[in-house]
Structures are given as C-alpha cells and as structure tokens.
Amino acid sequence: MKKRVICSILASLMMASALASCSNSGESGSSASTSSESAEASVSTAESEGSSETSGYTPNFEEEPYTVHFQYLVGAEQPGQDAVDAAVNELALKELNMNVDLIAQTGGTWTQTLSMSLASNEPMDLFYGGSDSFGTFIESGYIRDWTPYLQYVPDVVETLGDDIKAGYVGDFLVGFTQMKERGYQPGLICRKDIVDELGFSPDDFNVSITDRSSYDKLTELFAAVKEAYPEMTVIGGSTTPATYGVDLADCLGNNFGMLDDFGQSTEIINYFETDNFRFLCELSRDWFLSGYMSADAATTTDFGTVLVKAGNCFGYFTRIKPNANIEAESQTGYEVYAIPVSDTVVKSSFAVNAAVYMLANASEDPVKAAAFYNWAFTSREFEDLINWGVEGVDWVENEEGLAAYPDGVDVSNVSYHNDFGFAYPNQFVGHAWEGNDPDIWEQYEDYNASLLESKAFGFTFDPTPVTNEIAACNSAFDQYDNDLFTGSIDIDEGLAAMNEALYNAGLQTIMDEKQRQLDEWFAAQEG
C-alpha cells in the first residue's frame, strides 16, 4: 500500500472518505472563528448541569427498550461476533433498558458502507468518522450537533476536558475523541538483538530537528547493521523521517498549509518548501544511495512490520507511543526497541480529532443515544467486550490484572479479538493486553501531559470551500511523495517539480483559506 505523508485519519486506521453532498437538513455550523468560545461555554454549562439531580439520563425500565445502533471498527469478520452481540445486549438491557445493534465494520468495507448508510438514512445512532469529512457531514445533514446533548454525557465532558474543543467546527460540536495518545511522535522500530549485538543502546539516540547532527547517530547505526548483515534490508517499507516530517508542524487537518515550529507559528506556510523538509529528504537520499533501503522502497507494498517478521529486515520508521514496542513485538515476533526521532511532540486539533464518535441525524432518540455513549465511555465491561470478546472464552484476567488468552486459546483459534482500543470510546477503563506494563494507561496520561500544545489547538479547518483544490493537490502530491520520502529521486529536481505541481493545483488558494479561517479564530480568542 502506498504511504503518503499521513495527515489523514489513515495515520491510525481506516477512515471514511468525503461523502457526496445531498440535501441539507438545515443544521449546519457557523464560522470557525467561534469554536473555542463555544466549546468553553458548552463545557462549562454541561459541567454545571451535570451536577443537577434532574440532569443526565435515568433509564425507565417500564417502557419498551430503545435499540441504539452503534457502528464501530473491528479487525476482521469474526465467528465470535454473535456471542459479543448477545453479551453487550444483555449488559445494556440490564443497565440502560436498551438493546444494542452493534454494526461491526472492517477497514475494507468502512468507506463504502458508511457512505451508503448515511446517504440512505439507514438506522444509525452513533458512528466513528474522520475529520476530513466533518464539513461534508455537517452540510449534508448526516450528523447532529452534540452541544444540546452535553448534559447526557457528563462523564465524557469531565474526562475529556479541554480536548472537547478539538471536536468543534465553528459552534457545531461534531464529535468526541477517544482516550488515546494526543500527539504523534516519529520513531524507529528496530530489532533489539541486533542493536545490542552491535554495541548500541536506545540512550545513544537523542534525535532533534533543532540539532541536525543528532541524526548522524542513526546513520552510524544503519552503517553498522549494513556491514554486519550485508544481505539484510536495514530500513524496511516506504517510510522515513521525511514521511513523518509533518509531525514537526501543525498540519491543520491536511498536508496543504501548516503552522511551522511545532505549531508555535501563526502563519500558514507550505511545509514542503521549508529547510526542515528538504533536510529530511536529503537524509533519506543519503540512506537510499548507501543501500540502507531497498531499491523499490518508493513502490513497495510491504509494510516494515511484515519485512521484519520475515527475518531479513532490521527496522522501520513509524509513529510511536508509550507501548509501541509491545505492539511491534506482537506484530513482528521479535523483541524491539522503539527509538524516538523527535524530542518534541505536538498536541494539535488534528491529533485529537482525527476520528471522533458522531451523533447521527438518523437517530430516533438522540437523548438515549447520548446516554448510551456516556455509558459506553465509562463501562469497563462494554470496552472489554468490543475489544477482547467474551471473558472466559476469548480472554481472561491474568495475575497482573491484564487481559490474556485462556488456556488452549491463541491468535490462531480465538473467536473474537480486535486490539482496536484506540478506536473505541475509552480504552483506559478497559483491560490492557498482557505484555504491557500494568500502569500503561498512566503512562499514556503522562505522555499526553508532556506534549507541546499548538497555538491553534481548538481550531478545526473546514475544507468545504476548497474541496476541489484539495483533491487536485492530493493528485499532484501522489506523483512525488514516496519518491521524495525514500530518497529515490534527486531531491532538488523532485522538490521543485512537486511544489510547482502543488501550486498549479491550487495550493495557494487552500493556504489562503486556512489563513482566513485561522485569523478569524485567533481574533475570537482575543475578543
């Protein structure tokens, strides 16, 4: 699969693409300049209302149960889905007097199914959608503004706090993010045995874009691996630090117009004209010419995880988080190190709102749908069921308090297992999987607290006015991205050609629109 600079929801998961416009329901957002003011007012109101005895939702067990339609991601179609459905329904009926229609979707069917469901107004209460479609969903009338229903999600409001701001487009609250990492840190996943054998340590690497010589240590490591294992691919896949160069800026939702200096600037620039991006591309070029990457790095369809698992690849670049090494070990079969290649991590609106849970306009009872979401956000049993399956059948709690396979069950015969906590409402209330530290959720909280907040945090760009230009720029970008990221072409010629193609496709128009919306937003914060 071709990997582009990942300023889209595909950075983390499969996401729905923008949907074709249809009739407007009359419910739409206002100017983006008001978003943080609306967020602060709404959160404050919800917190005060949440303390009232008359606020919130109290189940009425004497009425007919409401059926809530909840769409969520799964890794694959699984034989244990029916058992999970039954267990979730039993739990929700007991605690909420609600039935639950779990609409499990895999990445392969996600885009088409979500588009068709929303466009045809099929039964839907809550669904998981990407930020690139916020404007389309609002204008098409597919979603409801969460703001009138905040009193029914008091636990969500309290837990997310200021992070709710990232879910606004104008004064329209599109959705709620999940409990996960709040920033993207580029990193190198590499085989521990080889690193140790060659006398290196993760502590040797203190990589920072503010000290370009710090990348020399990576080059030294790659040279040593190449010398010791001349037949091994040193850097697998098609990703490099240049691929994740956008993490050194605030991309504001897409690749076309960013805030430089880890989001500490307020001027929209073309990141692909910066010295930082050129440096990272030139670094990739040096590595490519030194033979550390495969000759087909720009076009390979093999992910680094697959190549490392096959045994003839040292490592790959990706985005890392507190338990990245544990995830990589399960994917590759090798003990690995996760080495950061940036010492600063940005907390941006996009990092928080890349995908959110939305309230469908098709919901027959949005109050009950909201109440269900608040319950789902706080229920350990629900989180464990949709992530790990039925306790005692698909998983058990081990001595460390972590989820693990029961005796006789493993990845080859388990009936239900997702490990998609990042895409569910609140994985922090559920069990982490064995291999993680028992305090992994506290590690996530510490990581999130260490992030550098972009000056534009709380601003969400509405791409609707420049949809055509974005599509044209994506097409132009696709012609050059991986060639430049992997150093497979001359950098001077490639950068010049790509930037010319982007401007011809309408890049300046996109940047001007971003700057206009952002300036309005900043003005509202000062008012």
Automatic annotation (TrEMBL):
From which residue to which does the signal peptide run? 1-20
* Keyword S-adenosyl-L-methionine appears in the UniProt entry: no
Origin: domain of life: Bacteria
Q: Which residue ranges does the record annotate as region Disordered? A: 25-60
Xref: Gene3D superfamilies:
Periplasmic binding protein-like II
What PROSITE patterns does the record point to?
Answer: PROKAR_LIPOPROTEIN
Q: Where is the composition biased (Low complexity)?
A: 25-56
Q: Does the keyword Signal apply?
A: yes
Q: Which organism is it from?
A: Candidatus Faecivivens stercoravium
Coiled-coil segments on the chain, per record: none
The protein in question is named: ABC transporter substrate-binding protein
Per the database record, which ranges form the DUF3502 domain?
A: 456-522
> What Pfam families does the record point to?
DUF3502, SBP_bac_1
Q: Which InterPro entries match?
A: DUF3502, SBP
Q: Which of UniProt's keywords are assigned here?
A: Signal
